[in-house]
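Researcher: I'd like a structural prediction for the single chain below. Treat it as a standalone chain; there are no partners to consider.
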Amino acid sequence: MEIKDSGSVVLTAYHSYAPSRLPARVEPGSPPRRKSLPRCQRINRMLSNESLHPHVYNRSNSQASVDSTSMEDFWCEVENIKESTEDRQDEQSLLEIKPPDEGELEAEWLQDVGLSTLISGSEEEDGEALLSTLTRTQAAAVQKRYNTYTQTMRKKNKHTVRDVRDIFGISDTSPTFEAIPVSPVTTNGIQLPVQETGWEMVRSASCRESECDKDSQSLTEELSFEVSFSESITVIPKHREWRKNQRLKKDESTLPNFTVRKSRFGLTEVGDLSLDDMKKIRYLSLIELTAFYDALGIELKRNRTERVKGRETGLFGVPLTVLLENDQKKIPGIKVPLIFQKLLLKLEETGLETEGILRVPGSASRVKSLRQEIEAKFDEDSFDWDQVRNNDAAGLLKMFIRELPSPLFTVEYLPAFITLVEKISKVKLQLQALHLLIMLLPDACRDTAKVLLQFLKKVVTNVRKNKMTLWNVSMVVAPNLFIYKGKRANQEEMLAAATTAHIVRLLIKYQDILWMVPTFLISQVRKMNEAAINNTKRQLMFDKGVRRLLRRKTMERERPERTESDIPEGVIRVHAPLHSKVSMAIQLNNQTKAKDILARFHCENSHGSSDNIKMQIQSLHEVGGNIGQHCLDPDAYMLDVYRANPQAEWVIKPKIT
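Model: Treating it as a single chain, here is the predicted structure.
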């Protein structure tokens, strides 16, 4: 459903903002927010020359009113956040605050992408395997960071560091990325012929303004996950600096609709891969994101990883991992904290049609009292949720999000989120950068963010009754996600209200795309696993004891035993341990899909309605070989998957949700 809210936010003047005095607190029984309205209006006037209407929540159809109230939503939400934290002692303490130098930043980057071997000098298999999978632009990004690290270390005279040419095998005295013998990868893990890539094309191509903006004016665009995003950049778009008079269009119809081209391997959601493979996806995503920003000529800024000590007990202000550890004792395998699920469920059941939900605040004193009662009674399941008003539940939800010891989108990459809007003008490129940032999230943050965005999409869907457009929701939610412990609330970043709101808008609108793992990253994981397997085999062959054992076994064997390799080409054996017929050999052809194999097992094992239900929640999994575990898309063509991983086992079992 397309929600149209025509208009724009105009940032016409920047003024210094130093809060001098907070508005009077709202007491129970008094009309909420009236005393703080003048302050919200004054802040809004600093950001726009347009006059404001006296009533905050009186939505008119005029463009000026829409712009004013949208900006007011953001600043009133900032005031709500301040009021809710002003009278509370901060229960979290920062354990480490130390400004890093450039070399330390690059060392942290190399560690975060799984290449600590380049710093330590050890011969770790995973590091070598990862390097062997990199595309040209990715290798150039690694080389650039390693060069900076080595130069810094040499100046400090700390220790001898390896030359970058030794790592990448470059013989030329001038190490440039053209010398790296790496080419882009396709979905089946086969290298493409070395050709002119984005880096070379950038040098010779010119970008006219009309060509750069062509994508943003198109109504529907196709996205491909088969070739790396950084390799797909053929020209450098003109960067958009955030200026005082910049206009950001709020109309949702200005955002293009994207369709994802499904390859013969199908699409893969983030939960469809094993934890070990997802760890490698994160390594590769950070390298790809860095290469992507390099290709656009943008600096990828990161905050230094901060160690924050949060509460160890309770529900609010407790790390997601601690909450999940406690909840998994009750419900094994749970991925989203129970308290967060309950708050969302409460709002979905009774609050989706409430006018101004998320925007109109509940009573501050009542929300505080409810929080204390929930903390005391939630574990015993004795809390009465019927007493919670919808606006109070929304206040509790936002309080939970902003009081997390580490923000939902991680403190390290908050600057990167801001940069993708301030420096990148094309929505398609913004979406690709956002996609890679989502791939970097820890499991707990990603899963929690996913259910939050699904809920926000439901709020927008009910816009006719709750009067909350996509832009309104984004304006209200943005401060809770991107103002972290006051650290993001400095003058420069607080003035970028429309910037953070636009990020939330992209997250809500394109969330179905953001949870898909790009196929080119999965292909690189396959190559990385294959390289690690080959390295292990080579090490075993060099072991004298193993060689003697293999020689003896070969002499004792009179005739070869039948192995899986004796199975005819294109024939796979599928295992279904939960069915009466637990195994079946299936001949594949060019048209065989994963859903066809599921349907065949369904026919062979169907004995009643219960079996029908069982089959509906089962999926075909690719296990072993060059992948840990991969839940296949029902539309995946099995012969292509088989050829990409001939050593895999094929198992039908429930999909983990």
